[in-house]
Amino acid sequence: MKHRKLLMIPGPIEFTPEVMRAMGMPTTSHVAPSFVDCMGQALERMREVFLSPAGQPFIVAGSGSMAMDMAACNVIEPGDNALVVNTGYFSDRFGAILERYGARVTHVKAAIGNAPSLDEVEAEIKKANYKVLTVTHVDTSTAVLTDVKGLAGLCRKYGILCIVDGVCSVAGEELRQGEWGVDIVLTACQKAIGVPPGLALLVASPKAIETFKNRRTPVGSYYSDWANWLPIMESYENRKAAYFGTQAVNLVWALDVSLEQILAEGMDKRFARHRLMSDAFKAAVTALGLKQIPVSADMAANTLTAPYFPAGVDGSVLPLIGEVGVILAGGLLAEIKEKYFRVGHMGVVNASDILSTVGAIEAGFAKAGYTFEHGVGLAAAQAVLLK
Ligand code: PMP
Question: Is a pLDDT exceeding 80 seen at residue 2?
């Protein structure tokens, strides 16, 4: 009997054996030559994974919220106008962080499951002198995917810094920081990057770094201040040890392994695999008669799916699915929290994970008394996978 369950939540996710082995290696000094090489290489690889050849990468111990904090505090000065393209829970959080550093924040918000249109955002941009626009690429609370390419284009047109919360997208959804002209892309390591939680990751454009260097006021956070971290990152990339705060040594070893695996697959192939896994899973969900939160297919993320429970089923089905061996997540958005669930399918996810998950959902739903033709979800997923 296998006791290990499949973790299909929107982060943390399943990790590769090679990544887990790196986590278990004897911890080196954070200034050991071997670690300096590893950190330097991981920084270089981040540029390739973020598709940001001119970007400045940062690797700092912390979670995704810490990366959001670092993005906000280094470019915002008290009184700056910031526009939040709001698609849910994590957009609200970005607004709160920006306010904490003194920004005057405006939200452009859409109804649940929808994202503000480019026209709506542009109309708001014209009303004030915005310095920064933030957007959540994939809002993990709703599985809504935003048009980062379009929004970054608007930011360039109006000279606004574009900050993308890519915590639930980087290394899964198509995101081309350099080509699309995004100024800051941030993420955390526990999602599609494929490393156990604990690293805040960020890549800043030359324009974002210049904005930071031209500040008139000190950065409001001591730990997140780029004045502390920029020389450290530059030094490691030049293969010289440097100290501001102790690096999360084993996590960085694991990150370097995972970035190598990501690049070995290739970014375009990786984006395509995420689309295929998502299409297969969403076909199953639809065949089982479930509706999803995103209002249309082009607004639905490829890294996770957020289906509503069907009539007569509620969150008590999730432990039943867990008993079959697959862990899923409940709802997160306060207004509809009890009405839906979330399934993550990112990182190393493969066809057998998708089929196992659909099978476990069918088993749980059947036990919960939901009536459907057994196997209909599996057949729909398989049809997409075998196409
Ligand atoms: N933004 C998004 C889109 C997220 O999904 C999350 C975490 N689920 C965060 C930010 C915050 O990351 P963390 O929990 O690692 O602080």
Answer: no
Ligand 1 centre distance from Cα of residue 140 (Å): 8
Q: How far is CA 71 from CA 48, 98, 166, 202, 209, in A?
A: 20, 9, 12, 8, 11
For the chain, the residue count is 387
List beta partners, residue 342.
329
Tokens of 62: 């912390």
The pLDDT tens digits for 144-201 are 999 999 999 999 999 999 999 999 999 999 999 999 999 999 999 999 999 999 999 9
Look at residue 355 and give its three-state secondary structure: helix
**Atom 5, ligand 1: residue with shortest CA distance:** 140
State the Cα–Cα distance between residues 60 and 32, nearest whole angstrom: 18
341 has a pLDDT exceeding 80: yes
Q: Taking the chain, what is the end-to-end CA distance rounded to the nearest angstrom?
A: 33
Ligand 1 close to Cβ of residue 169 (< 6 A) = no
Amino acid at 51: L
Tokens of 181: 């002209």
- Over residues 280-296, the pLDDT tens digits come to 999 999 999 999 999 99
Which DSSP state fits 293?
S
Q: How far apart are CA 275 and CA 192, in angstroms?
A: 13
pLDDT of residue 3: 77
Tokens of 148: 């980062």
CB neighbour list of residue 82: distance below 8 Å, 6 or more residues apart: 76, 95, 98, 103, 104, 105, 106, 130, 131, 132, 133, 134
- Report whether residue 187 contacts ligand 1, using a CB cutoff of 6 Å: no
Burial class (CB in 10 A: 0-12, 13-18, 19+), 285: buried
The ranges of the chain annotated as CATH 3.90.1150.10 are: 6-11+266-385
CATH of 6-11+266-385, one of 2.40.440.10, 3.40.50.10190, 1.10.10.10, 3.90.1150.10: 3.90.1150.10
What is the residue with the minimal CA distance to atom 2 of ligand 1? 167
CATH code given to domain 18-265: 3.40.640.10
* pLDDT for residue 303: 98
